[in-house]
Amino acid sequence: MEQDRLKNELLTAYQRFYVEGFKTNDVRLIDKIVSYPLVYLKDGLVEMVDHYPIDPAKLKIEKEWDHSTDWRFDIPAISDRHAHAVASATRCRADGSVIEHVHGFYAFTKVDNDWKMYALAEITY
């Protein structure tokens, strides 16, 4: 089924560039799946940014974030050119205690046959 192929293609790109970029604190890797300017929605504000707005290394230090659990990634809508995805996880310290829950919405489009994120909305709670 075409939908399954497209979802697998997007999930593979997301894990390869976005998830791995966060794990390794490599914003250059994250940049490979982002199309700038990026629409960034947080705390009731909308910004157009020309660089990725989250620094994984800084976030890990500030929050004492060691790892995540309960990670989910869902693609509720996808076509051959556009997709909407949602992700959620629980951020934890090294001792396993919960720091916060994070939920993100992503909009993707195909650019030169590669999936690129052009919008990101996040909330933590």
Explain what this protein looks like in three dimensions.
The protein has 125 residues and is of the alpha+beta class. Helices cover 28% and strands 50% of the residues. The chain is built from 3 helices and 6 strands. The chain has helices at residues 2-23, 27-31, 56-63, and strands spanning 34-42, 45-49, 67-78, 82-92, 98-111, 114-124. A 6-stranded mixed beta sheet has the order 2-1-6-5-4-3, with helices on one face. A hairpin with a 2-residue loop joins strand 5 and strand 6 (114-124).
Write the layout of secondary structure elements.
Blueprint: H1 2-23, H2 27-31, E1 34-42, E2 45-49, H3 56-63, E3 67-78, E4 82-92, E5 98-111, E6 114-124
Parallel strand pairs: 1-6
Antiparallel strand pairs: 1-2, 3-4, 4-5, 5-6
Give a concise summary.
The protein is of the alpha+beta class. The protein has 3 helices and 6 strands; from the N terminus they run ααββαββββ. A hairpin with a 2-residue loop joins β5 (98-111) and β6 (114-124).
Unreliable spans are: none
Silhouette: globular
The description of the largest β-sheet is:
6 strands, mixed
Helix count, DSSP H or I runs of 4 or more residues:
3
**CATH architecture call:** Roll
Secondary-structure content class: alpha+beta
Q: Looking across the biggest beta sheet, what order are the strands in?
A: 2-1-6-5-4-3
Strand content: over 45%
Give the fraction of residues assigned to helices: 25-40%
Distance between the termini: 36 Å
Mean pLDDT over the full residue set = 96
Count of distinct strands: 6
Which CATH top level class fits? Alpha Beta
Spatial extent as radius of gyration: 14 Å
> How would you spell out the order of helices and strands?
HHEEHEEEE
The CATH topology assignment is Nuclear Transport Factor 2, Chain: A
